[in-house]
Amino acid sequence: MKQAIVARTDIGMGTGKLAAQVAHASLSAYEQTSKRDRRTWKSGGQKKVVLKGSSERELHELAEIADREGLPTSIVRDAGHTQLDPGTVTTLAVGPGPDDAVDRVTGELSLF
Amino acid sequence: MKQAIVARTDIGMGTGKLAAQVAHASLSAYEQTSKRDRRTWKSGGQKKVVLKGSSERELHELAEIADREGLPTSIVRDAGHTQLDPGTVTTLAVGPGPDDAVDRVTGELSLF
After folding, report:
1. Verdict on whether the full-model pTM lies above 0.90
2. Which residues make Cβ contacts (< 8 Å) with residue A35, sequence separation at least 6?
């Protein structure tokens, strides 16, 4: 079991902002996950990978593929108090879910 | 309500590793939070700040102060498969909790 979080590289987020948006997406997708899958993922150390996404469009496309795989997803939009325009899409979390299903969605992306 | 996540600057984490460790701490502290406080925090947009910590010792000291404030805390140790030695303390999450209580713990730290 793992969770993949895709963060956009094309909007110039600073490190702290990026980390906060990754955490937001991670928690929101986790909350949509079945209790059983939550437990399994946590007992395995809540494995996470953070990956590079190139555009808002790519995040939406990946979310659609993840939906078809039956994986929980969450797309985060920044509130825009700092750095970004309000409503800017920043991150997508996919899973937690089985490694092979998550890889079918995000397997082509580079590690952040 | 907010959550503060303190990440060490003295261990050379890459951006993706740092974001994953911040997410891990965030979720683990959230899981120790009362249902009522979870709901309040989420309805306010699950506000998070990522802050700079200078050492493992500092993270433990801040966690003790947070305990005394009655705030949920979580210290994360990396599994050490990549970049870091196994068991390296990387991040501390404080809250979600009332802004003033979180600020009494982490108010002196710089934004990441």
Report:
1. yes
2. none
